[in-house]
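ok, trying the design again with the full structure, not the truncated one.
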């Protein structure tokens, strides 16, 4: 897969099919006969949109060597990526991520997904596209969307000094570039998420459970997940108090965390895809390999129950 830094200009993609959402079409004047608009946000991630996309691909006589360009956040990327993976058993794909979260996370690693029967990401595939990074898109993001992406950036900072050093010394474009390249390297080692790649799940066990319970955006849920999973690592003796304080403070510099972790939130960790044999699976930056704990033990450590 190719990862390039550049400026997105719709005129350069006249020979491709371009898919985006209504917000981005308006904000960035993405128009033309070769442009298809899908619903914004999570509303796009379903079989209806995939069917509409595939019908449009047929109507446009899309060839396997032609490229589909997905301009948008993770929702556009996940949906268009899935449609591209199944249409004619795979057509070329270029991601142009427009949110911070999509830049540092969802455009890299080849995971595509749509939702089904209220189950998020129930159906999907591994299908990698090339990526064009254009950080000009950040200019129209609001504070919440930036915080959402910064949750994943903090995860990378904790996982690798390579990103943390860039974060402490350079500007946002370099930080994004460092996150993308590091994630790409991890995914190359383990393309279908069998083992090594699971380090990327730090913050996501409790994060996903909070996303499900509170309905908050993914990156903000991960930020909460990082806060509470670091506390769990401390209670397990995997890190010292200084480490805990430092990283919890970094979390609160980005956004306020949900002040109370409830039993219902922790109960929702049982739905995590990484679990096996009823054990809740965690992956901590300060401890090599995965950690599996019974739910009762997690509750005892975090809630004192
Ligand atoms: N495939 C993966 O590896 C992976 C990883 C993480 C998250 N995801 C998925 O990504 C989705 C969330 O993606 P997201 O956080 O990027 O948001 P999103 O794609 O859901 O978009 C949220 C809103 O932001 C708007 N938007 C996008 N770019 C904008 C810009 N530059 N300026 C102004 N508004 C803009 C969109 O129009 C939309 O209304 C979730 O469905 C999640 O499951 C996938
Ligand atoms: Zn994530």
């Amino acid at each position: 897969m190719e990862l390039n830094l550049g400026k997105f200009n719709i005129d350069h993609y006249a020979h491709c099919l371009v898919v985006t959402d209504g917000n981005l079409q308006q904000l960035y004047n993405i128009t033309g006969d070769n442009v298809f608009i899908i619903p914004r946000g999570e509303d796009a991630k379903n079989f209806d949109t995939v069917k509409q996309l595939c019908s449009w691909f047929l109507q446009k006589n899309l060839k396997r060597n032609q490229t589909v360009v997905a301009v948008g956040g993770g929702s556009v990327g996940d949906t268009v990526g899935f449609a591209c993976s199944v249409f004619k058993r795979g057509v070329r794909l270029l991601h142009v991520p427009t949110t911070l979260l999509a830049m540092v996370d969802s455009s890299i690693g080849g995971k595509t997904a749509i939702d089904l029967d209220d189950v998020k990401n129930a159906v999907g595939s591994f299908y990698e596209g090339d990526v064009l990074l254009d950080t000009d898109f950040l200019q129209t993001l609001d504070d919440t969307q930036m915080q959402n992406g910064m949750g994943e950036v903090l995860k990378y900072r904790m996982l690798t000094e390579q990103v943390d050093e860039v974060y402490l010394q350079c500007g946002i474009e370099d930080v994004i570039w460092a996150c993308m390249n590091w994630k790409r390297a991890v995914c190359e080692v383990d393309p279908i998420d069998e083992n090594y790649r699971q380090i990327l799940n730090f913050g996501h066990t409790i994060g996903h459970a909070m996303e499900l319970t509170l309905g908050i955006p993914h990156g903000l849920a991960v930020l909460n997940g990082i806060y509470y999973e670091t506390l769990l690592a401390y209670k397990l003796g995997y890190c010292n108090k200084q480490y805990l304080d430092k990283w919890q403070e970094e979390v609160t510099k980005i956004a306020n965390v949900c002040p109370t972790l409830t039993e219902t939130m922790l109960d929702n960790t049982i739905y995590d895809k990484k679990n096996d044999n009823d054990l809740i699976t965690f992956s901590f930056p300060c401890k090599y390999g995965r950690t599996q704990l019974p739910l009762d033990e997690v509750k005892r450590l975090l809630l004192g129950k």
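Keeping the full-length input from now on. The domain at 144-303 is CATH 1.20.1090.10 (Dehydroquinate synthase-like, alpha domain).
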